Amino acid sequence: MTKSSLQLEVEWKVPITLSALAQRFFEEGFGKKALEGILLQRSDELVTALCGPRYFPYKDGRYRRAGTKKRKLVTRLGKITIKVHRVRDIHTGDIFFPLWNEVLIEPYKVYQPDVIALAEKGVIKMTYRDTREIMNEVVDSFPSPQTINRYIRTDGMALSNEYEGREIVAEVHQPDSTKLHAQCGGKHDLKIVLGTSGDKPPLIRCISAGKSWHDHIPAFNKTTFQKHNGNKTPPVVVSDMETGLGEVITPDGGYWQPCILHVIRQVSYSLWKDDMAMGKEKKRIIRTAKKILFHLINSVDHYLPRGQIEPIEHRIKQTEKELRRLSSQLVKEGYYKTASFLRKISNYVTAFATLSLKGINVPWHNNLVERLMGEISKRCKHKWMSWTEQGAQGLITLLVTKIIEPEQYEKFYNRKVYHQEERLPDLGVKITQIGG
Would 296 be classed as within a structural domain? Predict the structure, then answer.
């Protein structure tokens, strides 16, 4: 019978994390037995270098062997168990593990960052229970839902604090909120604010669960509003018709642009509040408001690329005038709530057009953050799901980061696995195979 042998060699250049080493072995197609063997071999090499061979120790040396200690660790390759050599410093009396100076691990923790990162990636798409059930088919030891939840809260809150404390540059704030079932009954208010600048990728300004919009004002103040050329711009907020939202987070001297799609829906809702049943008359009023608003949108799209300013200025004035005229008609017909809404909103809906004349790119809708809320709804808004504030905020921060700032998510993942934002090209490891 022909036998085959496999030999692995690792070129130890710099200290690396156990997670990084496990990742490298995973990429090369090796299993946990190979990882255990390399760690034991390196531990023996380091102790021999310090203390001398086992039966011929350095007599005048500073270090002495102090036995071994069994350590159980879990990486993406599975659970490993190794006996790590200990060394005593005879000058100070300290006992240490030479291996853990070169192979960095999470002290006092069984689960290493690579398997935790895998768990977090699964949880933002599936439930905690489903993630563990599926990953148990791949890894022979995987964290419990409670353990994963603990890490989700810790990592998500850390990312959330980074967002609230960082300085960003944007032209527009786009906020939105939704409600999640709370474990103690009632609802949690989940609030998200994105910073956008034209065609540039959006940035996360802040994410919170259980806080009011007023609590976000310190984070809002860390946004510098300016165009891509560095010129300062007034603060701008684009949002839906949530009561008080635009007024609370729009600073003095700023602009609030209500989402025009939501304005049209609000007209329909206001007519219902005015006891108007659905019919030809209601459809006519909604159609009239929609025609007025989209005439402005089309005018900006048509004339602005051509550099024609006067037609846009004329259309802005006409839009405000026509909305107020429609409001006056509704007052005569007794639809006071709708009339009041149209008169109030006429002062704001033209903000995107006014700012476009100054070269400031402001969307007339908040579809970006609405689509994001749809992704959150698919993951977190089910009747049988209930959340704590920290759990909801932690999970949703990771989910939103993966969708909105994938590069930031990758850097966060790399910090967990490699202890730095950029992945090392070879992890300081060289692996060779010899077959025979």
Answer: yes
CB 379 within 8 A of CB 387: no
Per the structure block, which two tokens stand in for 246? 């635009």
Of 110, 143, 173, at which residue does a domain stop?
110
Domain of 369, in residue numbers: 160-374
Coil vs helix vs strand at 65: strand
Is residue 364 pLDDT above 90, yes or no? yes
Among 321, 310, 370, 309, smallest CA distance to 350 is for 321
Which one-letter DSSP state was computed for residue 111?
A: B
Query: Would you say the C-alpha torsion 320, 322, 323, 325 has a positive or negative sign?
Result: positive
Decide: 355 and 255 in contact? Cβ < 8 Å: yes
Q: Other C-beta atoms within 10 Å of 7: how many?
A: 10
Contacts of residue 265, defined as CB under 8 A and 6 or more positions apart, other chains included, come to 241
Tokens 């290493």 locate to: 112
Residue with tokens 């809906």: 349
For residue range 77-136, list pLDDT tens digits in order: 999 999 999 999 999 999 999 999 999 998 889 999 999 999 999 999 998 999 999 988
Q: Domain check: are 277 and 353 in the same one?
A: yes
Task: Please report whether residue 20 resides in a domain.
Answer: yes
Note the pLDDT tens digit of each residue in 134-154: 988 888 888 999 999 999 999
Parallel, antiparallel or unpaired: strands 203-209 and 187-196: antiparallel
Count Cα atoms within 13 angstroms, Cβ side, for 38.
24
What total of structural domains would you count in the chain? 2
9 part of a folded domain: no
Same domain? For 269 and 201 the reply is yes
How close are the terminal C-alpha atoms of the chain, in Å? 13
Q: Last residue of some domain: 328, 352, 374? A: 374
Residue 188 maps to a domain: yes
87 lies in the same domain as 200: no
Q: Is the CB of residue 263 less than 8 Å from the CB of residue 286?
A: no
Instruction: Identify which of 416, 409, 311 has the alpha carbon closest to the alpha carbon of residue 356.
Output: 311
Q: Where are the beta strands (DSSP E) in 182-323?
A: 187-196, 203-209, 223-225, 236-239, 255-258
Whether 56 and 205 share a structural domain:
no
Chain centre distance of CA 271: 39
- How far apart, in whole angstroms, are the C-alpha atoms of residue 125 and residue 98? 40
